[in-house]
C-alpha cells in the first residue's frame, strides 16, 4: 500500500515504504490561547506562524519548536519530514500541514545524522554508534529500536582475532567495525549505508543484514559530510578535501578523485547536483566552492568560488537549479545555479536566533516556489517559501493566495 498526498499546488508525491501503511492519528486540540493567537500546541510541540518582515519575495511560513536540544539534522521520507536534535529526540512531521506524527529517540549521544531507507530509519550518534529503527504497526510505539551498529553478531564474529583490532589512540585498540569517535554523517546508496566519523574513517554497512563490510582510512581529519550519487561516494573533511570513492567492478571501495578546497579551511558539507556533474562544498571560511566533471576525460575543474557568508557555511542543499546554504552567521543564502556551474546570488533569509545547522528542500510546490526547512542551534525548525522565478504582479498575487491557503491549512490542522 502506498499513500498519495496532494500538495498545495495539486502535485502528487508518493511516500516511501517507511510509513506507507500507517494510519495517522490526526486528532489534536489547541491550547487555551485566544482564537486570534498565532501559537498552537500539539502535545509538547509549539507551532508559531512567523510575523517576520519578508526578505524580498521569501516568506517564513512557520516556526516549529519542540526539540529538547539544537536541531542537528533533517531528512525527507515521502510525505514526512524527520528532524533530530542534540537532545537525542527525533520528531516526525507530516507534509504539507506539518502535523506532528511521532516522536522517538534513545541513546547516550546526541543525534548527528539520519537517513530513511525503506521501513527503517538509521540514526548516527555522538556516542559513535548507529541505531536502527523500524516502523511497528502493531505497537503504540511506531518507531521501535531494533538494532545498534555494530551488531552483537558482528562483534562475536570478530572479537577473538587480534588481526581485527586497529590502533585508535596510544595504547588503545578497537575492532575495525567500530567508530572511535562521533559519527557525523550518513548516506545511502544501492543497499549500502555509509557512515563518516570524526575518527577520520568511512565505514560501509550492508542494509540487508546490518553487517559492516569495510572501514576506510579516508581523511587526515574529521569527516563532516557524505553524499552518494551514481555509484560514487563523496566525503568532505576538515582536512579541506573532498574524496570520491567507488566500488565499481570491485568488492571494496577505492579512491578515484580528490577535490582540493582552500588551504587550512575545513569543508563542512557536500552536495552533488545533476546526476553527479556538479559537486559543491561549504567551507569554514564562508565560501561555497563548486567543481564540474568533464565526462570525456573524467577530470574535475573548479567552476565556482563565492564568498557566500560572513561566517562558516555549515550546510547545503539543492532543489533543481537552486542551491541553499546555511551558515553560522544565522542566515540562509539562496543561489541560482548557472549552466556553467557558477552560482548567482538571489537573496538571503534571516530569522534564526542561532547558527543554521541543517537544510532540506521539499518536493511540495507552493505558488510557483518550493518549501525549505531549516534547523538551527536555537532549537527551532523553520519553514520557508522560496520562489523559483520572478513573477508579474498578477502572478505574485496568485502566489500569495496559495501561500495564505497553505498557512490556513497549518492552522486548521491544529
UniProtKB/TrEMBL annotation:
Among SMART domains, the record links this protein to: WD40 (SM00320)
Question: What PROSITE patterns does the record point to?
Answer: WD_REPEATS_2
Keyword annotations for this protein, in alphabetical order, are:
WD repeat
Q: Which residues form the signal peptide?
A: none
Q: Which Pfam families match?
A: WD40 (PF00400)
Does Iron-sulfur appear among the keywords? no
Q: Where are the WD repeats?
A: 176-215, 216-246, 306-336, 349-384
Q: Which domain of life is it from?
A: Eukaryota
What's the name of the protein?
A: WD40 repeat
Amino acid at each position: 500500500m502506498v499513500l498519495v498526498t496532494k500538495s498545495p499546488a495539486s502535485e502528487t508525491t508518493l511516500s516511501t515504504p517507511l510509513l506507507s501503511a500507517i494510519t495517522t492519528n490526526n486528532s489534536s486540540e489547541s491550547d487555551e490561547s485566544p482564537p486570534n493567537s498565532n501559537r498552537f500546541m500539539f502535545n509538547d510541540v509549539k507551532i508559531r506562524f512567523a510575523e517576520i518582515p519578508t526578505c524580498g519575495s521569501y516568506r517564513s511560513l512557520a516556526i516549529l519548536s519542540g526539540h529538547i536540544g539544537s536541531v542537528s539534522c533533517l531528512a525527507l521520507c515521502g510525505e514526512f519530514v524527520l528532524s533530530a536534535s542534540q537532545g537525542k529526540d527525533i520528531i516526525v512531521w507530516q507534509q504539507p500541514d506539518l502535523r506532528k506524527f511521532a516522536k522517538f529517540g534513545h541513546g547516550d549521544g546526541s543525534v548527528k545524522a539520519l537517513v530513511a531507507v525503506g521501513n527503517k530509519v538509521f540514526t548516527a550518534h555522538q556516542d559513535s554508534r548507529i541505531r536502527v529503527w523500524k516502523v511497528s504497526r502493531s505497537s503504540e510505539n511506531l518507531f521501535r529500536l531494533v538494532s545498534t551498529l555494530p551488531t552483537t553478531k558482528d562483534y562475536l564474529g570478530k572479537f577473538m582475532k587480534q588481526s581485527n583490532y586497529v590502533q585508535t589512540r596510544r595504547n588503545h585498540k578497537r575492532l575495525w567495525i567500530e567508530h572511535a569517535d562521533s559519527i557525523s554523517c550518513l548516506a545511502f546508496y544501492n543497499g549500502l549505508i555509509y557512515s563518516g566519523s570524526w575518527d577520520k574513517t568511512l565505514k560501509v554497512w550492508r542494509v540487508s543484514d546490518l553487517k559492516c563490510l569495510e572501514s576506510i582510512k579516508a581523511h587526515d581529519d574529521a569527516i563532516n559530510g557524505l553524499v552518494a550519487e551514481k555509484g560514487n561516494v563523496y566525503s568532505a573533511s576538515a582536512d579541506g578535501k573532498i574524496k570520491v570513492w567507488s566500488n565499481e567492478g570491485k568488492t571494496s571501495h577505492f579512491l578515484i578523485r580528490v577535490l582540493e578546497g582552500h588551504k587550512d579551511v575545513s569543508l563542512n558539507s557536500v552536495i552533488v547536483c545533476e546526476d553527479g556533474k556538479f559537486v559543491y562544498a561549504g567551507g569554514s571560511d564562508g565560501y561555497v566552492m563548486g567543481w564540474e566533471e568533464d565526462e570525456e576525460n573524467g577530470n574535475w575543474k573548479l567552476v565556482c568560488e563565492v564568498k557566500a557568508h560572513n561566517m562558516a557555511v555549515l550546510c547545503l542543499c539543492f532543489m533543481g537549479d537552486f542551491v541553499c546554504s546555511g551558515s553560522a552567521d544565522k542566515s540562509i543564502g539562496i543561489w541560482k545555479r548557472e549552466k556553467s556551474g557558477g552560482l548567482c546570488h538571489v537573496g538571503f533569509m534571516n530569522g534564526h536566533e542561532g547558527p543554521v545547522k541543517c537544510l532540506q528542500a521539499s518536493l511540495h510546490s507552493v505558488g510557483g516556489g518550493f518549501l525549505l526547512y531549516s534547523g538551527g542551534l536555537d532549537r527551532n525548525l523553520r519553514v520557508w517559501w522560496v520562489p523559483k522565478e520572478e513573477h508579474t504582479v498578477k502572478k505574485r498575487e496568485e502566489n500569495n493566495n496559495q501561500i495564505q491557503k497553505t498557512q490556513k491549512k497549518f492552522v486548521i490542522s491544529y
